[in-house]
Task: structure prediction
Amino acid sequence: MDVVKWGAAGVLAVAFVGALLVRDQPAEAIAVLPLPPVCGDAMADHGGSSMQGHIDMMAAGADPGRAALIQTMEPMHSDMMRGMTAEDFQTAFVCSMIPHHQGAVEMAKVAQQYATDPWIKMFAQEIITTQQVEIREMQAWLARLPAK
Result:
């Protein structure tokens, strides 16, 4: 059993060091990037207005950390639904995955702020780092699409 614990600790340590080495842009810079026009109509209501009231009610009775976590849901949800309106399957998939990953970054930032367990804080940093890389990869894929 000790071998498993040491192995798990080793994997986490390597992941944490890797996250520190590849981190090159703050989460805030990635998370606020808008979806490109190919990802559907930005002005359409993709469910956000109807969902926000429910989210606010859930957050109202929660402790501050959980309330902050709950509030990360709506921007992710409406942008994911917007991505589904892209013209073809592959573009819809990528356009929906970007806000999904941005939501993970926002949730991880909340975890870093409110968590007390060092593993959770480290894991949250790993999520931020890896999701940023994947967001940039998806944005690059979208940028390579032929202009319409």
Observations:
- The radius of gyration is 18 Å.
- The chain has a mean pLDDT of 80.
- Residues 42-148 form one domain.
- The CA atoms of residues 101 and 129 lie 11 Å apart.
